[in-house]
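Chapter summary example.
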Amino acid sequence: MDDDLEARIRSGKALSESMGNFHVTGWDPARRTLDAAFTVRREYCHTNGTIAQGGFITAWLDAAMAHAVIHDTDHAQTVFSLEIKVSFYEKVGPGDGRVEGRVVRRGKRVAFLEASLFNAEGKLAAQATSTGILADL
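The structure predicted for these 137 residues follows.
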């Protein structure tokens, strides 16, 4: 395997890039809420490149919830999804995207999470809830 690719995979940079340069833009510890941004690329879309495929939307929601746990535990833990439910409300097309992930409740082994995704027009486009098992980093 290419050494540079291996390093990018280990650092998480390759995954972030493949998700439209998904990156954390803010963390509010009082609200236990994380903000992140990404770019919805046309190649993520169906219907002649106009509507993001639901799996990508789910991945952005899931990533925001996972990063919320990482920040909530001061980078000591991550979370592995046991279940995730997504509701789709509005079209997500090419352009800038924004997502908020929130830790609703975190115990010793299990976390309950929520996330909201906003399309390029700023409209609430999708929401998710998730239950996950915590794992040490």
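To summarize the output: The two ends are 25 Å apart (CA to CA).
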